[in-house]
Amino acid sequence: MKADEKKYLLTSSQKKQILKVINKHMKKDSYFRSEVFNLYFDNDNYDLIIQSIDHPQFKLYYSYRHYRPLLV
Predict the structure, then answer these.
(1) What is the pLDDT of residues 40-62, one digit of tens each?
(2) Could you give the 3-state DSSP secondary structure of residue 68?
(3) Distance (Å, rounded) from C-alpha 9 to C-alpha 12?
(4) Rounded Cα distance, 52 and 41, in Å
(5) How far apart are CA 9 and CA 7, in angstroms?
(6) Across-strand partners of 39?
(7) Residues 52, 57, 63, 68: is their CA dihedral positive or negative?
(8) Residue 66 gets which letter from DSSP?
(9) N or C: which end of the chain has fewer CB within 10 A?
């Protein structure tokens, strides 16, 4: 199984435009009222991201993910 992940830096305006389009095709599930926080760790030389850019067969990264319900 191969996972493909691309990351982009968006402006606020671009984010609004994308959400406007994709929200027409998405259905809310039981987790839709939560925030997801991802924190990725690397060293001062950015070795992990540099290695990742080279598209190795296996990628090594350290991350922390946290889900928090939205306060409505």
Answers:
(1) 888 899 888 888 888 888 877 78
(2) strand
(3) 10
(4) 13
(5) 7
(6) 64
(7) positive
(8) E
(9) N
What type of residue sits at position 61? Y
Token code pair at residue 57: 């067969």
Which pair of structure tokens corresponds to residue 29?
């599930």
pLDDT (0 to 100) of residue 1: 53
Residue 67, beta-bridge partner list: 36
CA distance 36 to 69: 9
Tokens of 17: 């435009």
Please name the amino acid found at residue 47. Answer: D
Q: Copy the structure tokens of residue 26.
A: 């998405």
